[in-house]
Amino acid sequence: MTRSPVLEISDLRTYFYSRAKQAFIRSVDGVSLSIARGETLGVVGESGSGKSVTALSVLGLIGGSPGVITGAVEFAGGNGALAGGNGRRNLLQDLARHVTVTERDGRIVAVAKDEPGWRAQVERSMTGVRGKEIAMIFQNPKSSLNPFLTVGRQISEAIRLHTPVKGPREAKERAIAWLERVHMDSPRLRFDQYPDGLSGGMCQRAMIAMALASEPSLLIADEPTTGLDATIQSRIVALLAELKSELGVTTLLITHDIRVVSRLADTVAVMYGGTVMEHGPARDVLAPSVEPKHPYTSALLASLPSAQKKDGPHAIDGRLSVIRGEVVDTMDVPRGCRFYARCDRVTDAIRARCMSQEPALAAVTTGHRIRCYLHGDEPRDGARAG
Amino acid sequence: MATSRATGRALARRLLEVSDLRKHYHARAGLFASLHGQTRSVPAVDGVSFALTEHETLGLVGESGCGKTTIGRIILGVTRATSGRVVFDGHDITALPMRALRPLRKQMQMIFQDLDAALNPRMRVRDILREAITLHERLDRAEVTRRTAELLDQVNLQAGKLASFPHELSGGEKRRVGIARVLAVGARFIVADEPTSALDVSIQAQIVNLLRDLQSRLGLSYLFISHDLEVVELVSHRVAVMYLGKIVEIGPADRVARAARHPYTAILWSSLVEKRSQEVSRTAGNGAAAWGVFDFERPGQGCRFAPRCPVYEAAGRPAVCTDPASEPPLRDLGDGHRVACHFPLAR
């Protein structure tokens, strides 16, 4: 893996402030990930694990109060048109100038933010990136399309805005070709239809066509199959797999559906409570029988209905194997390991450390990292943990 | 063990019987058409019959729009059927007036899909439960407190959550409150409409286990409506597969899931495998063309699945499949496994 990363996220933190609780919600709390060109990185995690907020932070779509982002997001566009010399740009550059963060004990305790300055800086960083270099597919295709414009108009608009094709007629032909590419039946007919005339699956195909039409360097797919019927889901997954192998689009795939990730991703990051617990090749991370694994990953895989073989190791009486307790509260993150309270593999040898200090994301083999004292010794170092 | 359970159920008392249920919705026609008295009617449920015994879970699967939820709503009397009968515990509830329905209604309850819409955001958990407990009978304060504690224990909810508002609860806790509320009124039969689809997998497993425990402890019966085939297969004793308002296959869960005889059932379950495994060839996915578009309005004549059916195509489009006079009826294949297809798949 010597390919240069298209996207490199380092120590990203995105916090929100809850006025009611007078506390910070640490949605993303020190995430570092990178995606090589042509690779599909799958980010899995339960709701509240920070996977979507990570994507929104990359695209500068975090608003609200204070919506702090620290860390770095290095992005290398495809055509070198980006400022920053070598075609790389830190999408979070200079944002720090618009916030004052007070830390105590390595934890952010207060934030003052100059909202207009911040906004303006975000828009400057995103010019030519959002929508063009980084395209996004959202979970709810129906509400992501503009209901007042025909599907074709929306796609050709993207083409005229983001590619050298400027003529309306040419853009229309290009849009129809994309609709064909995503296996939309009767693409010429669909071109003139409004989103409400299309089924959920067709809307998602249109969304994918629109995202790809701007020929992005990076595609972010946030829950692309959630909410669709089982049969349609498998069609969309098959389509994404096909596009991946034929177009080689670099993709950040975010989903809670482990089945989708195992079908599409080359590498997988498992997120929990705002941080990455395990990161490695999909075949190692997601195969239930392959060790080592983070206890959270094991438990997650075991709780899938498909893991419940009649006499499988996790089935007791045909009951589902569960992860006890509830998802960690990102407003009140424990000092030690985030998963400690739900972990069933804590040993007496490591218990004290599990409770007091968060483990680092340590390499167990090349390219496979696990945040657990069972597999690594070091605690997380505050500034630049894995 | 499975067989002894099956025969045990055969002896169990029949709790619910649905026969030839139909619900037609009127699609809004254009202005001129309606002036001429023409309306298009869309059959959401088009002649559905099944029975449910005590202690049994019947899974109901199908794509969105196939009529699953409508059936649940008709059984509970929320939606009136166009025709057909629903017999609950010996009473034909489609014929009963509202007043007579009331004592039966508390035994039949629904768990809703949308957790945030199902719980009143301005009531604390304590009040939500108290309202349900005192809905059908008058109880003094001590008795309400005792019942509340009992319910919390049944659904494994901490007593500390009683003072919380729904928005302060996690998804799993909200789901537990919803279940407790249903138990509070004394439900015996529960229509669970997508009870786990909004939940994360770890929480989903907790809720599935809870529903199972309650079934064995309280002898509940469930109509488990879901499009999550894996969960349905896991929790159901029997599974019914619906397509465009009709049951196309019904039978023991493992038979329907692993030895499906209707092409549609086979496609539904294979889509699961397809999604899971990386090895599956892409050609399978590109059957999308043959798979075609889901159409709510009755497609063609005869078998309603024919326009999308791979078997129909492979067999050279036999005339019997599109013969208006011969829509395939549910035929018994033994062991309570029934399928509505002229050319059922080989075992």
Mean pLDDT of chain A: 86
Rg of chain B computed from alpha carbons, rounded to a whole number of angstroms:
22 Å
**Succession of helices and strands of chain A:** EEEHEEEEHEHHHHHEHEHEEHHHEE
User: Helicity level of chain B, as a percent range?
Assistant: 25-40%
Unreliable stretches of chain B (pLDDT < 50, length at least 5) are 1-9, 278-297
Helical content of chain A, roughly?
A: 25-40%
Give a quick account of the main beta sheet of chain A: strands, pairing sense, barrel closure: 8 strands, mixed
The largest pleated sheet of chain B is described as: 8 strands, mixed
Number of helices of chain A: 12
Most extensive interface: pair and counts?
Answer: A-B, 41 and 42 residues
Roughly what fraction of the amino acids of chain B lie in strands?
A: 15-25%
Structural class of chain B: alpha/beta
Order of helices and strands of chain B: HEHEEHEEHEHHHHEHEHEEHHHHHEE
Placed side by side, the strands forming the largest sheet of chain A appear as 8-9-10-3-11-12-14-13
Distance between the termini of chain A: 18 Å
What is the total tally of β strands of chain B?
Answer: 12
Counting copies of identical and different chains, the oligomeric state is heterodimer
Q: State the end-to-end distance of chain B.
A: 23 Å
Which regions of chain A have little confidence, pLDDT < 50, spanning 5+ residues? 310-316, 382-386
